Predict the 3D structure of the following.
Amino acid sequence: QITLKESGPTLVKPTQTLTLTCTFSGFSLSTSGGGVAWIRQPPGKALEWLALIYWDDDKRYSPSLKSSLTISKDTSKNQVVLTMTNVDPVDTATYYCAHRRSGQNYFHYWGQGTLVTVSS
Amino acid sequence: SYELTQPPSVSVSPGQTASITCSGDTLGDKYACWYQQKPGQSPVLVIYQDTKRPSGIPERFSGSNSGNTATLTISGTQAMDEADYYCQTWDSNTYVFGTGTKVTVL
């Protein structure tokens, strides 16, 4: 059974760096082809893909946010970390992590999400 | 960058058919998938690779994709199908979500 859970701060000040952790079970990121993505959703708005890290440490980023995002993984801890620098109130959103199965470009398993508010 | 456009809202009577469109340049040349999201919940995959249903998704959910438009069809819509629906595809090593459609069952 695949599960994912996001953790991190609920409140961040503008210009600070946001660090979110996705802890997962039921699969290994050392398995060929798999990946974990970060996706966010501002209140009342649409889903937005942010980044994805593949099993082989290849990383992909949203072109519009690439300069502010870093994704990394710790295979031994079954964790994926997303950092976002210089946050702004528009970054207020629920942040989800999700599993990408090997060879597939969709997300079958999602975490519960974590709401992050950017405010002074 | 690639964009997917959906109608903001669709209304349907119980038992009737709801069709939700997702438009993007040559979308039919790519795979599309669909997610259902109810208030306060995480998205749930209901259709992948244009037409396939994950285990546990009712048969009343079906999908198609041709030309510039992918379509999610809900046949015999039930009150429990009231939710937001998002299409998604993959283009040039990036994942793209649609603008979302709110389905209201009147």
